[in-house]
Amino acid sequence: MKHLTLNHLLRIAAVALLAFGLISGAVPALAETANWQQHMPEHIPGGDAAALIIPVVAILMVFGAPALAVILIALFVFRHRERRQQLLNERIQKFLEAGQPVPENLMEDALPSPVRNLNQGLVLLGAGIGLTVFLTLMTGFAIGSIGLILVGMGLAKILIWKLAERQAQ
């Protein structure tokens, strides 16, 4: 049996969420349109089918299009990362088959560097503080506290960098 990777599990979850969103948005709309004839004028251009199709298509577009866009973006990002890692592995394999030493810059790309954690942590920390201040001034702390998520992620990345630095010493 083929092993399920994280990428496959994310794809399955994304399709399931999309299907759930479409169904949960369309089913109440179809139930609402069960009595559609009492709300319609006598003559509808396109006939009775248009009166039923228009609300269903509108609901699917309102709920389905944003979910589909998010799923497609995530899919492209994961495919790009997977392909980049595959190419890196192929390059390293070619060096090993030829009996040559693997260049250090290829190995550095394969493993995350502690400096990358520091950079990402500082960017997340700055973005989180900025977002928190902006949203708090514009809407109040209830909405502004969303930026604290980024602050927490930034602090976690900086902590990871600090712990890796200590472990290296």
Automatic annotation (TrEMBL):
Tell me the leader sequence span.
Answer: 1-31
Q: What is this protein called?
A: DUF6249 domain-containing protein
Q: Which residues form the DUF6249 domain?
A: 56-164
- Transmembrane feature ranges: 50-78, 117-135, 141-160
- Asked if the record carries the keyword Kinase, the reply is no
Question: Is-annotated flag, keyword Phosphoprotein?
Answer: no
Q: Which UniProt keywords apply?
A: Membrane, Signal, Transmembrane, Transmembrane helix
InterPro entries xrefs: DUF6249
Pfam families for the chain: DUF6249
Task: Look up the domain of life of the source.
Answer: Bacteria
